[in-house]
Every structure is written in C-alpha cells, then in structure tokens.
C-alpha cells in the first residue's frame, strides 16, 4: 500500500491546483542552477518555510534520485528507519522508492533498519516532495528518518549512503541521472529572532565549512534547537565522501517574517553543497 500524505491540508494545500499555486509562489524564476551533491532544506508549514525551500530547489539541477534524511518527530519506528519499498503519495501524484539504492544503503550499515512505521505520520520528508514534484516529472526517493542522532550513527549513515551511491553500476539510474542528498531541518525553535539568528549562524557556518564534527559539537555546546542536525551531519559526511568542496547559504529567515511575532520564532536555512 502506498504511503499516504500525513500533513496535506495542514502543512501545505491539499488540492493539486492549490498546491501547485502555493509552490509556484515560492520558486525563484531564473535562479542560477548549481550541480549539487546535497542540500539543507526546512520542513515547517509552507506558509512559514516555503520561501527558503523554494529558493533552494530553484537553485539546483534536479537529479533522478533523492535520498531524503529527516528527524523523527513522532517517536515511532526504529532508531534509524529506511523505507525500502513502495510508493509515496502526495496531492501532486505518486513517487516511487528506489529499491536498489535503498537495499545498497541497508547492506552497508549495521544501524539502519528497514522500517515503514517511522514514516507514516512524519512530516519532515513529505513536505520536500511538492517542490520536487513541481519541478521534476520523474524521480525516485530513498526516505530515511533519524531518531538516533549520536555522532557515530550520523557518520555511519553518511558513509553508507555515499558507498551505496558509489556502488551503483554503470547504466544504473543513479549513475545516469545523479543523486541529491537532502537533509531536512528547521533551525532554532521558539526563541527571539535576534537570538535565533545569532545561534543559527554558528551552526550554518559549520555547514558552510563542511565540518560535520563542528556542526555536531556547536549544536550541542550552544544549545541550538536545530531538529535535523543529525540528518545534516549525515548529509555533510556523505557529500564529502562523494567529493564535495564547498557549500553556499541560499537563504535564511524565520517565522516572524510571516507571523509578525519576533519574540518566539523558528529559524529556516537553505544551503546547497557541491
């Protein structure tokens, strides 16, 4: 059975036409396209974080496969949960899972488990799909949720992803059409806009430096409530193993720009790694 949308009509518009219009408003026409290995993209309701996600997806060449890594907000499922088979539905259509690449990741990690339960009610990966579906007609995904965010877990996951991508043979979809590793994360939660910006840019700088250990330590030492720091560490690790040399901040903002409440904001950053 396909994985049904969990947050349609809540985090984003539920009808196909309304969702297309919503996504379109957040895209950046004419943006220069980067051949990316990975991105950091937010996952709040599109009304708040859509401008950042739209700017990021507008700024990259879209490949044929997306490895999506997000934080597990629900507490359901295995500590690191990969949905290895099937399809995901959104109001914009059906997205299939790349079963070959998923199996390759599973075979290269002792910590990643094949598990669908973690994905059923989780929003952090689902909200990425409308942007990709609007911009790319055919693509596949490998969805991964992280509840275990120990540093060694993040590093093992990142290395397993890179090794699985490198292990796809000539003529495979991955080799012919490319892969993008998406780390889904919001930044600081429910502090003032001023404090959020100060804290968030410390974490952002570590990502721009491609410093996985530095990001992990900074988030913990500075008490930065970045929910997807584990996925971001895994993404950096995988991208560096695949030859990444630089990262660029595409956009940073916070929920106060929409709500008008700058005392209790959530921060959003969009970063491209290439």
Task: Provide the descriptors you would attach to this structure in a database record.
alpha/beta, 274 residues, Protocatechuate 4,5-dioxygenase, Chain B
Descriptive overview:
It is a single chain. With 274 residues, the protein is of the alpha/beta class. The chain has helices at 16-26, 46-58, 99-107, 129-135, 151-166, 173-177, 193-208, 212-221, 229-241, 256-259; strands at 38-41, 65-71, 80-82, 87-90, 93-97, 113-114, 140-146, 179-184, 189-191, 247-254, 265-273. Strands 1, 2, 3, 4, 5, 6, 7, 8, 9, 10 and 11 form an eleven-stranded mixed β-sheet that branches. A hairpin with a 2-residue loop joins strand 4 and strand 5 (93-97). The radius of gyration is 17 Å and the shape is globular. The model has no long low-confidence stretch (mean pLDDT 97).
Gist?
By secondary structure, the protein is of the alpha/beta class. It has helices at 16-26, 46-58, 99-107, 129-135, 151-166, 173-177, 193-208, 212-221, 229-241, 256-259, and strands at 38-41, 65-71, 80-82, 87-90, 93-97, 113-114, 140-146, 179-184, 189-191, 247-254, 265-273.
The name of the CATH topology is Protocatechuate 4,5-dioxygenase, Chain B
Q: What average pLDDT do the residues reach?
A: 97
Low-confidence stretches: none
The biggest sheet, with number of strands, parallel, antiparallel or mixed sense and barrel status, is:
11 strands, mixed
Tell me the name of the CATH homologous superfamily.
Answer: LigB-like
CATH class: Alpha Beta
């Amino acid at each position: 059975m396909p994985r049904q949308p969990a947050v349609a009509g809540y985090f984003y518009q539920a009808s196909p036409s309304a969702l297309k219009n919503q996504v379109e408003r957040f895209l950046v026409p004419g943006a220069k396209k980067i051949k990316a290995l990975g991105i950091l993209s937010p996952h709040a309701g599109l009304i708040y974080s859509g401008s950042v996600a739209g700017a990021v997806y507008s700024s990259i060449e879209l490949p044929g496969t997306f490895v999506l890594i997000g934080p597990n907000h629900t507490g359901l499922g295995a500590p690191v949960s990969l949905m290895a088979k099937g399809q995901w539905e959104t109001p914009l259509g059906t997205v299939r899972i790349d079963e070959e690449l998923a199996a390759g990741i599973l075979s290269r990690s002792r910590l990643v488990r094949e598990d669908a339960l973690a994905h059923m009610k989780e929003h952090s990966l689902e909200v990425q799909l409308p942007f990709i579906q609007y911009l790319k007609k055919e693509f596949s995904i490998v969805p991964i949720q992280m509840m275990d965010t120990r540093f060694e877990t993040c590093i093992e996951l990142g290395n397993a992803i890179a090794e699985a991508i490198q292990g796809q043979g000539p003529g495979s979809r991955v080799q012919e059409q490319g892969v993008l590793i998406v780390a889904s994360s919001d930044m600081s939660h429910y502090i003032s806009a001023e404090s959020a910006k100060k804290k968030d840019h410390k974490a952002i700088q570590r990502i721009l430096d491609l410093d996985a250990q530095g990001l992990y330590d900074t988030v913990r030492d500075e008490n930065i409530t970045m929910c997807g720091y584990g996925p971001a560490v895994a993404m950096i690790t995988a991208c560096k193993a695949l030859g990444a040399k630089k990262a660029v901040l595409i956009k940073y903002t916070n929920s106060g720009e929409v709500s008008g409440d700058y005392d209790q904001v959530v921060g959003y950053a969009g970063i491209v790694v290439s």
